[in-house]
């Protein structure tokens, strides 16, 4: 199953070296179990998106370690891919960039022919360069945001509401980042997604803060205020909270998550694991250590 990770550190830029490379269950290490692609997205001090990704496991790419030691940003988005739709190519690897925003998705949806017709209707077909359902989903969000005068949250709500009413859906869990904001959606309850707020400094340990999960880990000595989003709890800290089904969270530079639940309890055509083809079903099952 694909893994998502997002971090917002407010107005303070942070390095990602600890959780990308050095943690016991780092992104580098976890790419051995989710082999179809690894990607990290950040923003430059000028607010321009920068994506480092490859259509192979990070442990197979010598350049990944060099880049991971230098990346820093106020927001991070990371994705470890187990492919459900699309070949194992660079263009199909998350995160995707559109309109100065970065996007990564964990889930599956069907009816891509209908989604493609919708993209043509809203003038967004040209945003799609690969084969994945995820990039098409992002393109609809981008188009609806454009039609909402640049209001990303409104664009998300309009795009997801349309998909929930017109497409067979298994899971639409995703993270979107900009240089100043992070949005996360858990919808519906098929996959878990957790949020953690740290506003009083990291938990005291002999070596600083260490947060680990079976998939992605964070280790930091210099970030005291932040919000984390992850597909699994990263440690036993009670601040981790499972997001509710249909919950959309927005985190701005003040690091105070704001959430709402603008979607119906279940999509009109809710898919179960048994409804997916063999490849998609395999990609949506947890591969715990």
UniProtKB/TrEMBL annotation:
Q: Which residues form the Glutamine amidotransferase type-2 domain?
A: 2-254
Chain intervals for the UniProt region annotation (Disordered):
253-289
GO MF terms, alphabetically ordered: transferase activity
**Superkingdom, according to UniProt?**
Bacteria
* Any single Pfam family the record assigns to this protein: GATase_4
Show the PROSITE patterns listed in the entry.
Answer: GATASE_TYPE_2
CDD domains found in the cross-reference section: YafJ
Q: Which UniProt keywords apply?
A: Glutamine amidotransferase, Transferase
Protein name in the entry: Glutamine amidotransferase
């Amino acid at each position: 199953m694909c893994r998502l990770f997002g971090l917002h550190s407010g107005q303070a830029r942070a390095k990602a070296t600890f959780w990308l490379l050095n943690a016991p269950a780092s992104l580098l290490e976890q790419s051995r179990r989710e082999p179809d692609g690894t990607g990290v997205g950040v923003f430059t001090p000028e607010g321009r998106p920068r994506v480092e990704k490859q259509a192979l496991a990070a442990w197979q790419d010598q350049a990944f370690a060099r880049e991971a030691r230098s990346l820093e940003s106020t927001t991070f988005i990371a994705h470890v891919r187990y492919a459900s739709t699309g070949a194992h190519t660079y263009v199909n690897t998350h995160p995707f960039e559109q309109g100065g925003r970065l996007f990564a998705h964990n889930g599956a949806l069907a009816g891509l022919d209908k989604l493609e017709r919708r993209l043509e209707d809203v003038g967004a077909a040209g945003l799609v360069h690969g084969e994945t359902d995820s990039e098409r989903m992002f393109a609809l969000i981008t188009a609806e945001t454009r039609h909402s005068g640049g209001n990303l949250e409104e664009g998300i709500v309009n795009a997801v509401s349309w998909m929930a009413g017109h497409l067979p859906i298994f899971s639409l869990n995703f993270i979107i980042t900009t240089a100043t904001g992070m949005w996360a959606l858990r919808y519906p309850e098929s996959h878990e997604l957790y949020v953690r707020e740290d506003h009083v400094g990291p938990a005291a340990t002999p070596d600083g803060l260490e947060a680990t999960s079976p998939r992605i880990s964070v280790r930091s000595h210099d970030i005291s205020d932040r919000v984390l989003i992850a597909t699994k709890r990263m440690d036993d800290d009670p601040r981790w909270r499972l997001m509710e089904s249909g919950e959309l969270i927005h985190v701005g530079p003040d690091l105070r998550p704001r959430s709402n639940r603008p979607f119906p309890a279940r999509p009109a055509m809710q898919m179960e694991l048994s409804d997916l083809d063999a490849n998609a079903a395999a990609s949506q099952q947890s591969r715990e250590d």
